[in-house]
């Protein structure tokens, strides 16, 4: 069977807090590691989508409703559903690794850069 969980593949999160959200595979680990002994992927996705905006709203309300909130998380392959789509991810590969879970400032920086992605 071929590998279908590839880098920059768009996936749907099936379980957990972000279930139903779209995400992009940033890094995939096929055979597991010592701390995660199963196939898993580091994904980057959208937590909160922009809300509807109408012309009668003020500038502050429009700015607040236009924000996108992103997440970066490690998921088991069984909690992800692959789609046929893939995107060109401009994320820096040196920044996005498992060390970002140990440093909150680095995680904040990666989440901020992830907002620029176009799903």
UniProtKB/TrEMBL annotation:
Any one GO molecular function term: structural constituent of ribosome
UniProt-listed Gene3D superfamilies: 2.30.30.770
Gene Ontology cellular-component annotations: ribonucleoprotein complex; ribosome
Coiled-coil annotated spans: none
InterPro entries in the record: Ribosomal_eL27, Ribosomal_eL27_KOW, Ribosomal_eL27_sf, Translation_prot_SH3-like_sf
Keywords linked to the UniProt accession: Ribonucleoprotein, Ribosomal protein
GO biological process: translation
Family annotation (Pfam families): Ribosomal_L27e
CDD domains, per database record: KOW_RPL27
Classification via PANTHER family: 60S RIBOSOMAL PROTEIN L27
Family recorded in the similarity comment: Belongs to the eukaryotic ribosomal protein eL27 family.
Official protein name in the record: 60S ribosomal protein L27
Native species: Nannospalax galili
């Amino acid at each position: 069977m071929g590998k279908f969980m590839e880098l920059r593949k768009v996936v749907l999160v099936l379980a957990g807090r972000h279930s139903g959200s779209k995400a992009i595979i940033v890094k995939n680990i096929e055979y597991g590691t010592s701390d995660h002994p199963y196939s898993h992927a580091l994904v980057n996705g959208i937590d909160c989508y922009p809300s509807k905006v109408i012309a009668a709203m003020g500038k502050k309300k429009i700015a607040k409703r236009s924000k996108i909130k992103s997440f970066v998380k490690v998921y088991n392959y069984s909690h992800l559903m692959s789609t046929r789509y893939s995107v060109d991810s401009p994320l820096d590969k040196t920044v996005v690794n498992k060390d970002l879970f140990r440093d909150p400032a680095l995680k904040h920086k990666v989440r901020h850069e992830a907002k620029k992605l176009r799903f």
